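To: structure desk
From: M.T.
Subject: fold request, one chain
Message: Could you run this one when you get a chance? Sequence is below, nothing fancy, just the single chain.
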Amino acid sequence: MKSVIVGTAGHIDHGKTTLIKALTGIDADRLEEEKRRGITIDLGFAHLRLPLANGDTVRLGFVDVPGHERFVRNMLAGVGGIDLVLFVIAADEGIMPQTREHFDICRLLNVRRGITVLTKCDSVDTDTLEVVRLEVEDFLRGSFLDPALSPLLAVSSLTGTGLDQLKSALVAVAGETTARDSNAIARLPIDRVFTMKGFGTVVTGTLIAGTIRKEEELEVFPTGKRVRVRGLQVHGAIAEQAIAGQRTALNLAGASTEELGRGMTLAPPDTFRSTLGLDVRLSLLPSAPALKDRARLHFHAHTMESIAEVRRYATKQLQSDGEPFAQLRLRKPALLLPGDRFILRQFSPLVTIGGGTVIDAMPLRKSDRREAFLGLLMQGNEDATLSARVARRGQEGISLSQLVAETGWPGAQLEGRLSQPIQRGDIVRAGEFFVHAPAIEDLGCSLVAIVDKFHQANPLVVGVSKEELREAVHVSPEVLAIVLDRLLREKKIALTGELAHVPGRGVVMKDEEAESKKMIERAFASAGLKVPSLKEVLAGLTVDKARAQKIVTLLLRDKILIKISEDLVFHQSALAHLRHQVAALKAGTPKIDVARFKDLTGVSRKYAIPLLEYLDRERVTRRVGDERVIL
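Reply: Done. C-alpha cells follow.
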C-alpha cells in the first residue's frame, strides 16, 4: 500500500483543521487549549485510505499545522516531512500574511506537489468566489501550485461541497508522488513525545527514509542514547514495521520522556554523526535583507530548530539574488545529511527570509577549494560525488563508515559505486579505507624522502621503523601497508624486519666503529644480569661520544641490547635466560617475591626491582601485593 504524507498550509482560521476532519472524520486538534480557542497551536494528525484506479489503495497521513504567525515554528516542524501540500485559502478572506509566508516555506522546502483549496465557499456568493479564484491563480502562477499544473478546488467543509472532487484530486496527485526510499538508512525525526498508560514512552514522526522494525535497536541523535522499539504503529494501526513515507509511532524501551524531545532523530546505531557545521546553498527571498557575515538566524530542518550563525565564503554580504554557498554554524548539534532542506528566519523580528539545501554536513576545517567541491556535489553525479569526497581526504583516505555518515548512503551501495573507480585505479582500497590514487603517489614520494633523510642523519642505523613512518605522515596502518607494498615492488624501499631503508643501503661502519660495536656487545653479553653502566662501557671506546651513541641506538633497534630502565641496559641473551629461569619456577611455587628473586639471580635490589618490572611488562609475571604471580 502506497503511503503519502499530506501537510496543510495557510493562514489562521482558514479552515485547515475543519477540512481535515471533513475528509477523515478525525479532529486533528488534540489539545484542550486548541479546542477552547478554536485555533491550531501545535501539530495535529489524521489519516485516510482512498482507492486507486488500478484497484490498489493509497494511505494518506495528514499533518495539520498551525496558521497563526506565533506558531510558525510549530508549522515548520510538521511541514518538513510532507510529500504534498493542501494549500488552504479561505474564500471569505483571500490571500493573507501567513498565506504568503507558508507558500514561501513550501517553495523553499522544495515541496513539488500540492492542491490549492478555497475553503468556506458556502460563505460567499458566486461572484466573490470567482474574484478570489482569479486572485489566487495570479498569486500561484509560475509556481509548483500553478493552476495550469495543479488542482485548484472550491470546498465547503460544512456542506460537503467539493469534498468528493478533492478526494479524487488527492488520489491523482498522490499517484504521481514518488515513493520515499524504504531501502535507505532509516531516519525518523521526532515531532511528539508522550507517555501512554500501560506502554510507557512513545514518540511519533514521519519516517523520511528507510524501514524501522519491531524490536530493532535505534540511536537517538544528537544524545547518543540507545533505545529499543518495543512496539510500533503506522497511521494508528499496530504493525511489525514502518517504511519510509509513513506516519509512525514507536513505543520505546530504554529512554524516558525527559530524555527525548521534538527535534531529535532516531536512526540505526553507529551509523551517522551529529554536526554543528553545515556547508549549504542558500536561497533568500526577494524581501530578505542582505545577510552580513556571522549574522545570527533561526534555523529549522525537519522537526529541529536551532540558532545558527551564517559564514560567507565569497562575499561580505549575502544578497537575495542568486544562490550563494555559505556555512552555517549551529548552536546545538543535529543529524542532517546532504540534500536535506531547511528554512531560515530572521533573528528579530521573526519572519521567514529564506532557506536552502545542505550540501555537506561534515565540512573539513581547512579546504582551499571548498566552493569548487560544493559546486561538484551540487551537480548530483553520485560517482563524481564519491570521488570528490575521497579525494578531499588526501593521504589519510576515508573509511567506509565515514562515507556512510557523510552521504547517508548504505555501505553496499557505496561499495558498488566505488568498484569501478577502484578497478580503473582512480581510487585505492586499503582495508576499510579508500584513498585517491594521486594521493597514494604523493604519499609514496613522501615516504621515500623521509627514509632518505633518515639515512643522511643516521648513517649507523639500518632504517626507520614502520611506526615512525606512519606517525610522520599521519595515515592509518592499512594505508601505510598499501603504499609500502607498492614501494617494495617498485624497489624504491626495502624492509629489514620492521625497518624501512633504501635498497642496497645498509649500515656503513669504519673499522674502529665496527670494533666498538663488538666491544659494547661483548661487555653486556659477558656481564649477564650484573651489567655495567652504559656510561662506563662507552668511556672505554676509541670512537667519539656521538658515534658511540649511534652504535648503541643500532644495537637497541636490532634488539641485541634491551633497555629496561633509564640506567639499565641488558644483552638480549641474558634476559631470555632470565625469562626461562622464572618460568621454570611455576611448576613448583607459582609465586616469587623480591628476596627469592635476588637469591635466584644473585643480583642486588638495584637490579632486582627494574628486572621484576620488566618481567611484569613482558607478561612473564603479574604483581599482586608484594609478590609476583608467575604466568
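Reply (cont.): The chain has four domains: 2-176, 188-267, 275-370, 511-630. Let me know if you need anything else for the meeting.
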